[in-house]
Design goal:
Elements: H1 3-8, E1 16-19, E2 23-27, E3 37-41, H2 53-73, E4 78-82, E5 93-98, H3 114-127
Antiparallel strand pairs: 1-2, 2-3, 3-5, 4-5
Helix pairs in contact: 2-3
């Protein structure tokens, strides 16, 4: 069972920003930038291209809606998207508010307090449509 499955089942806490019956989105606790969000299918699958074409399309549509909420919440040049998947064997899309290319390199991290995470997750969730 992946760490993301434990978040989905409520065994581990998260700063949730969006959820439906198939997907959940929550703030990355080790973010590249303020608002860095992970979009995760609730059904655990290791690799993105092992998803069915339908599940992949639904994941991208849900990610689009989360990205739009991020754009309304975080001042940035664009929302970057990355799918790597080596660190957690559960499909996940990184959505990163981006101002410079290095925001997408996973080498520079920002720190937020618990209260900042809570406030930010609520703001993003209020913009999710």
């Amino acid at each position: 069972m992946s760490i993301f499955t434990k978040i989905i089942t409520g065994e581990l806490p998260s700063y949730k920003v969006a959820e439906d019956k198939d997907f959940i989105a929550f703030l990355d606790i080790n973010p590249n930038a303020k608002g860095h969000t992970l979009v995760v299918p609730k059904k655990e699958e290791n690799k993105i291209f092992d998803l069915s074409e339908e599940a992949y399309s639904k994941l991208m549509r849900f990610s689009y809606r989360v990205a739009k909420a991020l754009e309304e919440t975080i001042s940035c040049k664009r929302i970057g998207m990355s799918v790597i998947g080596l660190e957690v064997p559960h499909v996940h899309v990184h959505l990163v508010p981006t101002n410079v290319m290095s925001d997408m390199q996973f080498t520079h991290k920002v720190s937020l307090t618990h209260d900042e995470f809570i406030s930010l997750s609520k703001k993003i969730a209020s913009n999710f449509k």
